[in-house]
Amino acid sequence: MAKKEKKYLPPSGAGLVRYFEEETKGPKLSPEQVVIMTVILAVFCIALRFSYS
C-alpha cells in the first residue's frame, strides 16, 4: 500500500487556522441578514422600552 501524501501550505500562515477545512453545523446567514435582524431587534427593544413609560 502506498502512503497518502499530505499537502502542506507554506509556513507563512503564522499559526493561523485554515477555516475553509472546517465545516460547521447550523444556519448559514449572509451579512445582510445579520444586519437586518439586528436592526429589527433594536427597534423592538426601543419600542418595548417606550411602551412601559
From TrEMBL:
Keyword Cell membrane among UniProt keywords: yes
Keyword set includes Hydrolase: no
Keywords, ordered alphabetically: Cell membrane, Membrane, Protein transport, Translocation, Transmembrane, Transmembrane helix, Transport
First-listed, main subcellular location of the protein, grouped into a coarse class: membrane
Record's subunit section: Component of the protein translocase complex. Heterotrimer consisting of alpha (SecY), beta (SecG) and gamma (SecE) subunits. Can form oligomers of the heterotrimer.
Compartment(s) of residence: Cell membrane
Transmembrane stretches, start-end: 34-52
Topological category with respect to the lipid bilayer: Single-pass membrane protein
One GO BP annotation of this record: protein transport
Top-level taxon of origin: Archaea
Cytoplasmic face of the membrane: 1-30
Cited Pfam families: Sec61_beta
GO cellular component: plasma membrane
Listed name of the protein: Preprotein translocase subunit SecG
Stated family: Belongs to the SEC61-beta family.
Organism in which the protein naturally occurs: Methanobacterium formicicum
Free-text function comment from the UniProt entry: Involved in protein export. The function of the beta subunit is unknown, but it may be involved in stabilization of the trimeric complex.
InterPro entries: Preprot_translocase_SecG, SecG/Sec61-beta/Sbh
